[in-house]
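User: I'm putting together a teaching handout on how sequence relates to shape, and I'd like one worked example. Could you take Major facilitator superfamily (MFS) profile domain-containing protein from Clitoria ternatea, show the sequence you're using, and then write out its predicted structure as tokens right after it?

Assistant: Happy to. First the sequence, then the structure tokens directly below it.
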Amino acid sequence: MEGGVIEVDASAFRECLSLSWKNPYVLRLAFTAGIGGLLFGYDTGVISGALLYIRDDFKDVDRKTWLQEAIVSTALAGAIIGAAVGGWINDRFGRKKAILVADVLFFIGAVVMAAAMNSAILIVGRVFVGLGVGMASMAAPLYISEASPTRVRGALVSLNGFLITGGQFLSYLINLAFTKAPGTWRWMLGVAAVPAVVQFILLMMLPESPRWLFRKEREEEGKAILRKIYSPHEVEAEINALKESVELEIKEAEASDKVSIVKMLKTRTVRRGLYAGMGLQIFQQFVGINTVMYYSPTIVQLAGFASNQTALLLSLVTAGLNAFGSILSIYFIDRTGRKKLLLFSLSGVVVSLVVLTVVFNQSSTHSPMISAIETSHFNNTCPDYRIAVKPGAWDCMRCLKASPECGFCASQTNKLLPGACLISNDTTKRECQKEHRLWYTRGCPSKFGWLAIIGLALYIIFFSPGMGTVPWVLNSEIYPLRYRGVCGGMASTSNWVSNLIVAQSFLSLTQAIGTSWTFMIFIFITVAAIIFVIIFVPETKGLPIEEVEKMLEGRSLNLKFWQRNSDHGEDVSTTQKTQSK
């Protein structure tokens, strides 16, 4: 029900599955809107593998770390604008139209990127894709949330999260499929145009969000949709509760001509909702998830795997685990609750980051030495090594950090034995590989490489079910209807700004302070995130949106995160009865 708490007599996961034959219309709405999540995931994930081959085609990208970061992060800059503008489009024109606009932007961006003849044009295409990603990031979960029955709302919004991670997994499969095709990365980036067209066509045949229709005084249209969503014995109560809620919001809206940021922040429920919603979105990025998703193949190469294909194949494991974690989230989010899931997730992330920090520290301090004999075997010694005062003290890591123009050619007999420090170019790479040696420009050979893969896998396993999904679910639940579009836009914008900062700085940080210290920074941020969740994030499990507002109105900081939702509901009801007396 919209206006009261429903007792969930079975898991929301099983209830969600039963909809496939009880009410397939609800799943049709959710899956169609969720294609936006699929595009979101694909366009954020595909660049990780495409970047390996873009570096091969555009030498300016290969030489300049900041240009690699720019190709990744300009999409995020576009997403910031898309999320901000998307909030206004959502409230003014509706959730459906916002998703349709996102599809058009996805299509334009995919075509521009596939046809790009230089890095500048490629970046323009990334901006268009980013605009679409920003709009889809908030419009799709909002549409699903407002068109879902209460008891499965969390599970269906989590479905959007699953499709995001599914899109990322699909992007890695597509990357692998085109590694041998002419134009490699052009196919990888251009394929995104297909699901954008599919969603545009399907969504044209579906209605607008019923809550938005009620807000725009189009009640008959909204009632017709609710009758398709709810069973006959529930629908009248749902219509009445939604009507009362919207009428209250309209009365508030009439008191002022427009949404005032000052007034919004003075509203206790909105302010407390923003603390939790924006805070979670910021921490979601600053614990390092998109360094893994955007740079996963690069991280694998930093761990000592030289081949592009090997890096992509191993990265596919992390993408697959990410999708699997989203499935777990659909099952657990309405069963265990949002807050417990967040704390479990973040605790596991800390453990994973500790593993990665130790592994990369050991890899950097135990890299193969540089052999003068091996180096002299070739005629193109790295200039920095040639003029070094103590070349005998050089190892592989010192060679790669000396200059972007240096590369490491491993020993022919064993990659962990001393190798050669050479000029990094296509000719040298061919000469090295012709002798069946491995060629390294990103990371060094290491016996700890597989431990790094395990660390990445653990990170994804713990992150995905909780921090990967819950921030989006919570942001679709905790804001009053009148402010939902604006607050959702603010939260999504904070997510993309944080995402931009992390993506634009990760490679530079690994070069400046090393990969291990970079992951160490993420450890401290994750510990801060755990404290934040305990203090500021409410539990919304099983609560209709209207009850969430009431809970936030009367809620003070509560460290008892294991407290049941029913307790909150009883507290709210008791307060209301006392006030009425």
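A couple of points you could highlight for students: The mean pLDDT is 81. The first helix runs from residue 12 to 22.
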